């Protein structure tokens, strides 16, 4: 696997696998993905977006809610879901539904955190409701927006490590 830069791969009719490696220990990558004070700093997509609402009740059956705003365009978007399984620091599984349902009513995301020496590979397996929705997602700019967030996450991880 190439360091950095996200890769995406279709898996069957309804699944998308997104993989990204980070030059940081797994515990820090998990911390940056599960604590609101860190999530709101990197999970932003393109420049200009902020995350004024970042609520995370990190327990099985707990809910999370994220809302973004873009001051220049007055756009807002949000999503939320439930924590289905938590086996941290190895993996977690959640539901996810965007408010505007552009990608269907609800998806399931399993996130794996795999240690590889001093690096961590983060692998998201996203299961959509239908093949049509998966096609719509793959045609969207979602992957490029995620990579922008992951570049911020890489910088945040460096900061957390004192690099």
What is the rounded Rg? Answer: 15 Å
- Structure summary, number of beta strands: 8
The portion of residues forming beta strands comes to 35-45%
- Structural class, by secondary structure, is alpha+beta
The dominant shape is globular
Explain what this protein looks like in three dimensions.
The radius of gyration is 15 Å and the shape is globular. The protein is an alpha+beta fold. The protein has helices at 26-34, 36-42, 131-139, 142-161; strands spanning 7-11, 15-22, 49-56, 63-70, 75-87, 91-98, 107-116, 119-127. It contains 4 helices and 8 strands, in the order ββααββββββαα.
Characteristics:
163 residues; 8 strands; alpha+beta
Give a topology summary.
Elements: E1 7-11, E2 15-22, H1 26-34, H2 36-42, E3 49-56, E4 63-70, E5 75-87, E6 91-98, E7 107-116, E8 119-127, H3 131-139, H4 142-161
Helix pairs in contact: 1-2
Summary of the model, kept short:
The chain has 163 residues and is of the alpha+beta class. The protein is 28% helix and 42% strand. The protein contains four helices and eight strands; from the N terminus they run ββααββββββαα.
